[in-house]
C-alpha cells in the first residue's frame, strides 16, 4: 500500500519510501469551529457502518493532580490509552484497518509487531470476525502472545528481531494476497492514530495543549499525532499545533539520531527494556523525521532506568499503571521540565497498560516475602 513509483526504491531493512497519507477533502477546510462537537467518523476515510462492533478510543484524559502538586506544575494531563479494548493505543489503527478490510471485502489480515499491534489487530479483527496472521520476534512478552492466542490469531514467531518479522510479513502478504496492516506500510495506521489528537483537543475544552510528549519506536504514532493536529489546524479547530516531543530510549534511538544528527544508521541494533518502542531501523523513519521538523517538534533520549522509574512513579503517585514504553513519555517530560514554564499545559501520551509486560515492571519493584499466618507475627515484621 505504498506509492507504486517510490516503492521501487525500497530496500529491505531500511525505512520505507512512498508511505501514503490520507488527505481531508477541500470542502472540509475551516469547517470545525470550537463550538462544534467532534464526530471523529466525519474525518476518517471509511464510513462508520464498516467499523467493528467494539468501542475504541475516547480514552480518559486524566488530570494528574498529585504529579502537578509534587512538581509544582499547574496543568499536567495523562492521555491513557491502556483503557482501549486490548489495552493499547494500537487499537486506533487496527480499528480503521479492520473497517477498510470490511469495506473492501477482505477477511484476512497480516501484521508484524513487537506485541501490541499484534494483540490489537487480533482483538479488533476478532470483533469483526476477521482472521489475523501475526509475525512476532521470539522476544515478544508472553502476555501479548497469550492475548493473540485468546483472540484466535495465527502466530508465526520468528527467530530474529521485529525488523526481520516486518520483512517476512510483507513477503507473506505478497504470496497470499492478504491485507497487510504493518505500521507505516498501511496508510490506515497513521490515519487511525490521528484520532488521539482530536480527542485531546475535545477533552481539554477551553484549554490548549502546549506540549505533547509521546513514546517513539517506528515513528508512526509520532506521524499520526502530528497528522491529527495538522488536520485540526486545517479544519480551523486549533490555530497552533502544540510542541510535539518524541521520546526514545537511549537503547532504541534510531529516529532521535536521524533527527538530531541528520544521519540514518541502517546497521543500528536496539536493546531496550521498553519492548513496544524497541526498533532497530524505524520503518517510518524518513517520514517521522520530516513530519517532526515540519512542525518544529523535538526529540529527547531517556535511559531504561529512567523509564522504569517513571513507570513506578506514575503508578505510585497517580494510580496509573502503564507499560514501560508509555512511561517514556513521563520520563522525557521529567528530563525537560526545567526548560518548560510551569503554567504550560502538558499532555503525556500513555500508550499501553502495565499488565502488557509484567516482567519489565517487576524490575522496578520487589515481590513481597511470605508471612506466617499469624497476626502477631505479621504486626511484628510488617515494617
Write up this protein.
- The protein has helices spanning 65-71, 91-103, 116-127, 142-150, 162-176, 187-193, 195-204, 220-234, 254-261, 285-294, 304-318, 324-336, 358-361, 375-381; strands at residues 61-63, 75-80, 108-112, 131-137, 154-158, 179-180, 211-215, 243-249, 298-302, 345-350.
- It has 383 residues and is α/β, with parallel strands linked by helices.
- The chain folds into 2 domains: 40-87 and 193-364, Rossmann fold (3-Layer(aba) Sandwich), CATH 3.40.50; 89-188, 3-Layer(aba) Sandwich (Rossmann fold).
- A 6-stranded mixed β-sheet has the order 1-2-10-7-8-9, sandwiched between helices.
- Helix 3 (116-127) packs parallel to helix 4 (142-150) and helix 7 (195-204) crosses helix 8.
- It is globular, with a radius of gyration of 21 Å.
- Calculate Rg over CA atoms: 21 Å
Query: Please, how many helices?
Result: 14
Shape: globular
What order do the SSEs take from the amino end to the carboxyl end, as H and E? EHEHEHEHEHEHHEHEHHEHHEHH
Name of the CATH architecture of the largest domain? 3-Layer(aba) Sandwich
- Mean pLDDT across residues: 94
Query: How many extended strands?
Result: 10
Query: Between the first and last Cα atoms, what is the distance in angstroms?
Result: 59 Å
Task: Give the total of domains.
Answer: 2
User: What name does the CATH topology of the largest domain carry?
Assistant: Rossmann fold
Q: Uncertain regions: pLDDT < 50 for 5+ in a row?
A: none
Going by helix content, strand content and strand pairing, the class is: alpha/beta
Percent helix, as a range, is 25-40%
Amino acid at each position: 500500500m505504498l506509492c507504486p513509483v517510490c516503492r521501487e526504491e525500497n530496500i529491505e531493512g531500511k525505512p520505507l519510501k512512498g508511505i501514503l497519507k490520507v488527505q481531508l477533502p477541500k470542502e472540509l477546510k475551516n469547517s470545525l469551529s470550537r463550538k462544534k462537537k467532534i464526530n471523529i467518523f466525519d474525518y476518517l476515510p471509511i464510513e462508520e457502518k464498516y467499523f467493528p462492533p467494539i468501542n475504541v478510543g475516547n480514552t480518559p484524559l486524566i488530570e494528574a493532580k498529585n504529579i502537578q502538586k509534587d512538581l509544582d506544575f499547574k496543568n499536567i494531563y495523562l492521555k491513557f490509552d491502556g483503557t482501549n479494548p486490548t489495552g493499547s493505543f494500537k487499537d486506533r489503527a487496527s480499528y480503521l484497518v479492520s473497517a477498510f478490510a470490511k469495506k473492501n471485502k477482505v477477511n484476512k489480515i497480516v501484521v508484524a509487531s513487537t506485541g501490541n499491534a499484534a494483540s490489537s489487530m487480533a482483538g479488533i479483527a476478532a470483533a469483526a470476525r476477521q482472521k489475523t496472521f501475526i509475525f512476532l520476534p521470539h522476544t515478544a512478552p508472553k502476555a501479548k502472545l497469550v492475548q493473540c492466542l485468546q483472540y484466535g490469531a495465527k502466530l508465526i514467531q520468528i527467530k530474529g528481531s521485529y525488523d526481520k518479522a516486518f520483512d517476512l510479513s510483507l513477503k507473506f502478504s505478497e504470496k497470499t494476497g492478504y491485507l497487510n496492516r504493518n505500521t507505516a506500510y498501511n496508510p490506515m495506521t497513521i490515519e487511525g492514530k490521528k484520532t488521539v489528537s482530536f480527542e485531546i483537543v475535545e477533552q481539554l475544552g477551553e484549554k490548549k495543549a502546549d506540549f505533547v510528549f509521546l513514546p517513539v519506536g517506528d515513528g508512526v504514532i509520532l506521524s499520526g499525532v502530528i497528522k491529527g493536529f495538522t488536520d485540526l489546524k486545517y479544519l480551523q479547530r486549533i490555530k497552533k499545533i502544540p510542541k510535539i516531543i518524541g521520546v526514545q530510549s537511549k537503547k532504541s534511538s534510531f529516529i532521535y539520531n536521524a533527527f538530531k544528527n541528520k544521519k540514518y544508521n541502517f546497521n543500528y541494533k536496539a536493546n531496550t527494556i521498553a519492548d513496544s518502542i524497541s526498533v532497530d531501523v524505524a520503518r517510518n523513519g524518513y517520514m517521522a523525521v520530516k513530519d517532526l521538523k515540519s512542525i518544529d517538534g523535538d526529540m529527547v533520549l531517556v535511559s531504561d532506568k529512567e523509564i522504569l522509574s517513571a513507570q513506578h512513579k506514575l503508578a505510585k503517585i497517580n494510580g496509573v499503571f502503564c507499560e514501560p514504553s508509555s512511561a517514556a513519555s513521563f520520563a522525557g517530560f521529567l528530563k525537560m521540565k526545567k526548560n518548560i514554564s510551569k503554567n504550560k499545559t502538558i499532555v503525556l501520551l500513555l500508550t499501553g497498560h502495565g499488565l502488557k509486560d509484567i516482567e519489565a515492571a517487576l524490575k522496578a519493584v520487589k515481590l513481597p516475602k511470605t508471612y506466617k499466618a499469624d497476626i502477631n507475627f505479621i504486626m511484628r515484621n510488617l515494617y
